[in-house]
Design goal:
It is built from ten helices and nine strands. The protein folds into four domains: 20-76, no CATH class; 81-196, Tetrahydropterin Synthase, Chain A; 216-270; 272-333, no CATH class. It is 56% helix and 17% strand. The protein has helices spanning 2-35, 112-122, 126-144, 150-153, 163-182, 198-270, 272-287, 304-308, 316-321, 327-333; strands spanning 36-39, 43-49, 52-57, 61-64, 71-77, 81-84, 88-91, 97-107, 185-195. The protein starts with a helix and ends in a 17-residue tail after the last helix. The strands form three sheets. Strands 6, 7, 8 and 9 form a four-stranded antiparallel β-sheet that branches. The chain has a three-stranded antiparallel β-sheet with strand order 3-2-5, covered by helices on one side. By secondary structure, it is an alpha+beta fold.
């Protein structure tokens, strides 16, 4: 009986020890779980002791802390976020209104000082931080837009667009204040949308039209000046060509007249009477045009050659060259008159 009781006592003691060991292991596991801090990538944990921050863990992985309520971990999201202002009516340097929508890419820096500042200013609320950033962006837009004209923001010439300067100035206006006050680091600031109200659009179109008309007038004036220069050069060249041609024609005519004078001189020297007769006939051909009727005395020079024939011929060649004029030809062509009448071309009154 005694041995049986001892066995039962040992069995009870073994079970009690096993239960105590299991409870201890569970307690140790719970304490270990309460002391382990898991820091994922893109996050940081701030360890507080009785509510006061004592250290910041920014390296991803496992970390240790005292179990609650001695110490607690506050996770802070370090991922990149974006915030937009929406369309905002602002004024430019030249007094025109534009509608601008700006955005900002921001994150909480992974250094302890900025993390603690973020916790104290917005109580680890990203939405509250975004609202504060939106307010700063809108105020910055109102200030920066007055330093730029509308043509610096909207222009058909890419070389005249200063949108990059606008974004850089806006980032400089906002970034330092957000980091100093709220512990937020601004990675990028840009213009998401830019448009103009109806009245500004009408004024812009009118200004652009005036600029185009000015350019068109300038180009037209340059074209007219070039055309005038071309016409002047062409007229000068034409005058030079005509003058040269006239000079050559005059020279040719002078040479021809000189040659004709030599021929006339030679003919006169050979037979003066024949020369006078031929020159009289040439004079008649030059004096009369078509549809011209001339009535003169037949004994008047040079018409006497038609009635009297060659006179004072100097040699036999003249008699052979000029035949005598018949009486019928004399009566049919010319009649002796005391008056002279000339019918103009086209049959006018005599």
């Amino acid at each position: 009986m005694a041995s049986t009781g001892g066995a039962r006592s040992d069995s009870t003691r073994s079970k009690l020890l096993a239960r105590t060991a299991v409870a201890t292991l569970i307690l140790l596991a719970a304490v270990a779980a309460a002391c382990i801090v898991m820091v994922p990538a893109g996050d940081a944990d701030v360890i507080t002791r009785f509510g006061a921050p004592v250290r910041v863990i920014t390296r991803p992985g496992l970390a240790w802390k005292l179990p609650a309520p001695f110490e607690s971990a506050i996770p802070v999201d370090l991922r990149l976020r974006t915030t937009s202002t929406g369309l905002l009516d602002v004024g430019t340097r030249n007094g025109l209104r534009v509608l601008v929508q700006a955005y900002a890419a921001w994150r909480v820096p992974d250094n302890p000082r900025d993390l603690l500042r973020f916790l104290r200013s917005v109580r680890n609320q990203p939405d509250e931080a975004a609202q504060q950033l939106r307010t700063f962006l809108m105020a910055g837009l109102q200030i920066i837009s007055t330093n730029f004209s509308l043509s610096d923001l909207v222009n058909t010439d890419p070389q005249k667009v200063r949108l990059g300067d606008f974004e850089r100035d806006l980032r400089g206006q906002v970034a330092s204040r957000m980091l100093r006050v709220y512990g937020i680091g601004i990675s990028q600031v840009g213009v998401e949308r830019l448009t103009v109200p109806d009245q500004t659009l009408a004024a812009t179109v009118a200004r652009m039209k005036a600029e185009r008309e000015t350019v068109a007038a300038q180009v037209t004036a340059e074209g007219l000046a070039k055309a005038a220069g071309i016409r002047a050069d062409a007229d000068r060249d034409a005058r030079e060509v005509v003058a040269t041609a006239r000079q050559r024609a005059s020279q040719i005519e002078a040479n021809a007249q000189e040659a004709a004078a030599h021929i006339y001189g030679a003919a006169y020297r050979r037979d003066p009477g024949l020369y006078a007769t031929l020159r009289s006939l040439d004079s008649l051909g030059l004096m009369f045009a078509r549809n011209t009727h001339l009535i003169l005395r037949t004994d008047a020079v040079p018409f006497s050659v038609l009635t009297e024939g060659p006179v004072h011929l100097g040699g036999p060649a003249s008699a052979a060259l000029v035949p005598p004029v018949s009486p019928q030809l004399r009566r049919s062509v010319l009649a002796p008159k005391l008056a002279t009448e000339i019918d103009p071309p086209g049959g006018g009154p005599r």
